[in-house]
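worker-03 picked up job from queue 'complexes'. Input manifest follows; two sequence lines, order preserved.
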Amino acid sequence: MVVNAEGIPIRTTLDNSTTVQYAGLLHQLTMKAKSTVRDIDPQNDLTFLRIRSKKHEIMVAPDKEYLLIAIQNPCE
Amino acid sequence: MPQAGSLCVWRIQNCLTFPAFRSGGAGAKVASDCAGAGVGGGGGAVSTVTRAQPWQLCRAGSAGAEALASGGAANTERPERPGPLQDETLGVASVPSQWRGVQGIRGETKSCQTASTATAEAPAQTRKHVDAEVQTEAPEPVSLQPVPQCDGPRLVAFLRRVEAMVTRELNKNWQSHAFDGFEVNWSEQQQTVTCLHTLGYPPAQGQGLHVTGVSWNTTGSVVACAYGRLDDGDWSTLKSFVCAWNLDRRGLNPQQPSAVVEVPSAVMCLAFHPTQPSHVAGGLYNGEVLVWDVSHPEDPLLWRTGLTDDAHTDPVYQVVWLPGPQHGHRFQVLSVAADGKVLLWLAVGAGRLQLSAGFALAVQQLPRSTKLKKPPRGETEVGATAVAFSSFDPSLFVLGTEGGFPLKCSLAAEEPALTRMPSSVPLRAPAQFTFSPHGGPVYSVSCSPFHRNLFLSAGTDGHVHLYSMLQAQPLTSLQLSHKYLFAVRWSPVRPLVFAAASGEGDVQLFDLQKSSQKPTVSIKQTQDESPVYCLEFNRQQTQLLAAGDAKGVVKVWQLSSEFTEQGPRETEDLDQLAAEVAT
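worker-03 finished. Artifact:
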């Protein structure tokens, strides 16, 4: 799904309630991750965020205006 | 005559010539003479020089001395008066005593009175009224915000930028082995299965009653068990009990239940209400279905069916709570009995359970999907011994029968049943599909909470069959015991785990992921191999499993962590298992 800079989903392939939930939570987490990277090294910046859980993997590609979130079931 | 030897010169000459210096001897002599004369003359008033002396000077000198001497004496002669430190007596200051004197009452009386209130009567009446309806609006479904058009090109540019990166990561994940075998443990692992509580009710155990049913309540903190006998072939007027223990209470006494209900006939099965923590339904040996409230020990009976024409005529083997027909908060009870009837009861006032719908199984109406043994002549009913509802389709249920074949049934079936039994509500034939039979009666069925097509059935032949709804032959058949199997249940958290209670006194836990041939854990419940009749998982506290046996003891087992946490790919494995349907 694609989320804009305020955490509002713009395009999605999932159902509405799941999309809204993912968008809100991942937007906050991405902001936190970005500030963490910048705090450690001000010249550095966040390029990609991957969260791996028991059931699937969430990938977030951040940008100035948008966020692209992809959820994948890894094959083991 | 001047004395001889002195130098004093008697001069009678001019007394005024006053020589300043005289010879001392002569002067002294003269002075002493004068002094003698003056002193002799003192002591009185100012004396005049009475002596006519030759020298006037001497007389002046002595006169001064005399005056001086008499002045001092004259000072001492003054008149008398009182000094500063003398005692005086002044007057006395006193206050007259007022004790016992009449004080005199000083008071005033005043009175007040509220002014009288003015009242008036006037009628009032609404002349016109307006009706208005109030309705809470359903919450608006969460909707996506419409995107303004001008964002289009920027969105496209963004997607072009990130697409390559994301697809690269996605592809890497498909082939990645980085996380193979990597598992994180967030909570403490428990390695073994332990018995947390051993609960029993001594009076029931004294009568030699078996535990015929256990149930956890909706909050997962109360476990109730039903006492009865499973091996009686006869009508019995044995008194039996339903006992409930609250495991979360402090000071839990395993021999003393927190609630005991005395029941006139043996209770065969038990089920707690899905939302009310204290309502429990039970089916009796004489065919009645009762609902109790275990929070009121003095009057627990809420509703009963009574022994009417509508009720069952054979022991009720299982009761299940279902949502009511209007999808409100009302629930109805479904009871399954050996007379082939499946009845739905609704609670109406005055403590009665009224039949709302019913089904009857008749041999002629069973779908001929598998070859069944021809029943003895004259028997048309098929006794039902177990029921399980699908968690994906609320009107679909599976019945286990005395003939050993599970039946797929639906609540929405329309065809009327061919039965001679009288009933106030027309009975319908529910069966839609017949599965391939066990070697003996089926005592328990359980539908998988994770897959819509899978269910288990366990019977007296000691086998557990895993069926898929799509075919009559079981997918797998496992022999767990050489004696009967009394209960089988899917685990509520792990898609591939189920538990079975055997007649050899142990509870066997199967993990189909680990091994499909032998049980992963086999818990010995009774020491002398008396059978375990029933078991239930706790849906709230997923590590607890309650099992009741023939000794009248309910044991609450705490399972090891491998049974309580879902592994990474279990749902997919389950799907794979279900897909092994022979085409």
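worker-03 released lock.
The longest strand of chain B covers residues 352-360.
Residues 152-175 of chain B form the longest helix (24 residues).
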